[in-house]
Design a protein that fits this description.
This protein has 148 residues and is mainly α. It contains 9 helices and no strands. The longest helix has 17 residues.
Amino acid sequence: MANALYDMNQPSEAISYYQQALTFDSKQSDVHYNLGNAFYLLGKTDEAIKHYNEAIALNPDKSESFYNLGNAHCVLQQFEDAIHNYTKCIELDTYNAPAFYNLGNAYYMLCKYDKSIESYKMALKLNPDSAECHFNIASAYNDNSQHG
């Protein structure tokens, strides 16, 4: 029921069902992951981070948990934490173009242009048609030449 509500773009309603599921078994990593997603959609980033971390503690091999945790840290402008989580995601899923792209964005926000360019290049190897990535790598090269 919770997943159906979430899929119908009713995250608030889904949260109550996910929370109820945890009262029966608090060790369900996918429920924590889904709770994180629902809280993230509602803009409750701190709650999302809490549940992504719990999902990771219960299942450290799910790359999506690290990816979404990285996104949540970016929302809070915690770019070093985001970099850590995107890197872990990529260790688990080396073909995750969005993780490489977002890793590049996090490095860019910290003015680490060389590292952002490396990340964007990897994203483009996996998804060469990404217009956003082409734009961002051009911006990183431009800013790198101005500040380097």
